[in-house]
Design goal:
The protein has 113 residues and is mainly α. It has 5 helices and 4 strands. 43% of the residues lie in helices and 9% in strands. Strands 1-2 form a two-stranded antiparallel ribbon. A two-stranded antiparallel ribbon has the order 3-4. Helix 3 packs antiparallel against helix 4 (81-91) and helix 4 (81-91) runs antiparallel to helix 5. The chain is globular.
Length: 113
């Protein structure tokens, strides 16, 4: 049985799935895309900061820029929002795990969409 300190519910049904705690919610990997979809870019950047403990130095300026953006259509200084997100993704290759995978997939979808 899996228990989380402070949680009042039993998570034994998740015995074969590693739990993911995102923004105070315990999730499985299938719930991540639905949770990320309505978030703006600045909120996604906050999720990245919480999950990626030692952010690669090359990703830091782009992650900081993303914290000031609402969508990939926004500009940051002279840079387009799409380019900021693309440069972040290019520098986020060392960030791994289920949250990283879901965030990268969502950001790529927004660039293409």
């Amino acid at each position: 049985m899996l228990t989380i300190p402070g949680a009042s519910h039993n998570l034994s049904y998740m015995k074969n799935i590693a739990p993911i705690i995102l923004m105070g919610q315990v999730l499985d990997e299938t719930a991540l895309p639905a949770l990320l979809k309505p978030m703006d870019i600045s909120t996604i950047a906050s999720v990245v900061r919480r999950d990626w403990k030692n952010v690669y130095f090359g990703a830091v300026p782009y992650l900081d820029a993303m914290r000031a953006m609402g969508s990939v259509e926004d500009n940051f200084g002279m840079d387009s929002g799409k380019s900021v997100v693309l440069y972040f993704l290019g520098n986020a290759q060392t960030w791994r795990g289920p949250i990283a995978k879901a965030v990268k997939k969502e950001l790529n979808a927004r660039i293409k969409g």
